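Listing 4. Sequential folding, example run.
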Amino acid sequence: MTFFKWTALGVGGVVAIAHIGVLGHIITATRVPEAPVINFPRGDYSSYKVEAGKEGYSIEYRANDPAVLNSERSLDLNKSKKGFFGSNSSENRIEYRRDEYTMDGTRNIGGAAIEGEGKSAKDIECIVADAGARSQGAMAGTSIAAGVGVPAVIGIPYVGWLAAGWVSLLGGRVGSTVGSTVGSVFNDC
């Protein structure tokens, strides 16, 4: 009798656990999958499109997607003939032109900007001055590092020659940065 009780209790326990597992599977299978919450960075020129369905979801995001302004003009041709052989003829033409404008308002002509659009003379002057100041600063920084820093580290056993090169490179890099800062102050950029 005890064997029968334990067998019935074991079979009943297995059937009960199986029913709970089947119910859990049915409940989770009927649940609608949710799209994840993604916080897109938003700006004036960003756009995104999300498509979600039973099979999954897809996201299309563009960080800098400005609307492009198009300007179009077309050709309109009017000919008029007066006289017997068209000796007094006139022709009026209006030609086609299409322009695209970028987000900063300059006309896109497929390469460089049109004269008068884009960078000002002051911007160009500042770029040229910055390049010269960086070059001069790099030369001065390398010279100072070679005169002061290299003799201090050249005596290090085994790696002194390598450390001397690092000091020269670091001096040139620091000198370039300092030269750019000083040049921008003196040139009012």
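-- end of first protein; second protein begins --
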Amino acid sequence: MSLPALTDWERTRIGLHQAAQVVGAIRKVDAVPLPNYLHLALEVVPEGVTSGELAPAVGGELVLDFAQRAILYTCPEDTVYSVPVEGHTQVSLMDAVLAAMEKAGHPAQPDRSKITGQERLNIQPDAAREYNQALYSIYTAIARFRARLFGGMSRMVIWPHGFDLSFLWFARGLDEGKDPHMNFGFSPGSPGFPRPYIYSYAHPIPPGLFDITLPAPARWTQESWKGSVIDYDALAAEANPEAKLENILLKIHTAISPLMG
């Protein structure tokens, strides 16, 4: 299946990102700390992204449904409360979700210090559906690649701060702060990269890393960060982008992992 073009979708990207940050802020309430900060992360589902099961003190699950343009709260009693994103700012969306949770009998008191957006969220239906397709397709390809690796790995998650999907592969150990590892992920766009891209990096950077010839269309970047980039637009032009991405990432890992010690 081909990937959608994702044109004229910048406002939708911002809106989905800010809505995901609302889910992420509630996800953190009373969450039990996990290695490598995974208790702060969201997960991909066919509908969009989910908080997963919230801490027992809160209960239930939050899903940001891209196609419905809504945050769905399924409370522990299995009743579903839908909060449409349309018409809200990030701040008022948080208010509305918390009101729905309180109505369900499961109030929460998240840290709101980073939920500050005051502009109306503008999520276009077609663009949201296209990003849903793009994210799930790339998630599927990266998951298949991950399944072919040996060694320690983290879960594949969405980070609310950057709205990027990623997982860690460890050369040894399992601590991101001290053990050598590679990070593989997908970003919808970041400073210096206005278009979506797939990325990888090695930490610490091993000697000879940038002497490696990457498989096309992957390329090195050494600007705001150092690692490999596969431009989404180049991947979308492929006849079978999922299989292409899976094989490119496997070649990158095969070339770099022996340098990690």
